[in-house]
Task: structure prediction
Amino acid sequence: MHISEGVLSAPVLAGGAVLAVAATAVGLRKLDGEDAVRAGVLAAAFFAASLVHLPIGPASIHLVLSGLMGALLGWAAFPAILVGLALQALMFQYGGVTVLGVNAVVMGLPAVAAGLAARPLLRRSGPAFALAAFGCGALAILGSLALLYLALVLSGDALSVFAGIFFWSHLALMGVEGAITLFILGFLKRMRPELLA
Result:
């Protein structure tokens, strides 16, 4: 779900950078000792999961785990995602440095929103927990797809067709991310319920 260098317009890049700085500042204020360790572990999982790409039509998809990060970290998920994206851009040329702010906003803000929305239901059990955990993973991806579509469309009419193809080819990822998030959060609820408190 990385946007490459040279695709977006200057206003979109500038807006993404400003939003990324603001969200990172909020996220860093929310980090304390144990959250910093958790954020590091989840940033490493995000980095590793994003390296495995599966071709789907004209695009390729990869796991993101952003909903899981949002559920476990809240606002602290944003700087963790930013670090993972920066390492991918510098080490493997996924995305790029100039689009780092937009990519962070595209993946980070939906993760935070889905995680914060799901948190009250993640403290429950049964169907409410399962629905919240699955929804957290799936809706984080849907939000990222919507923001990615918006960034591409705002950068020019020529990108509108590509934005639509990219959006529809990634919808399958929502179910996969929702199922993985449900599985991991269910495991954590049984083994370390304090992480969801």
Residues 10-196 form a domain with the Arp2/3 complex 21 kDa subunit ARPC3 fold (CATH 1.10.1760.20).
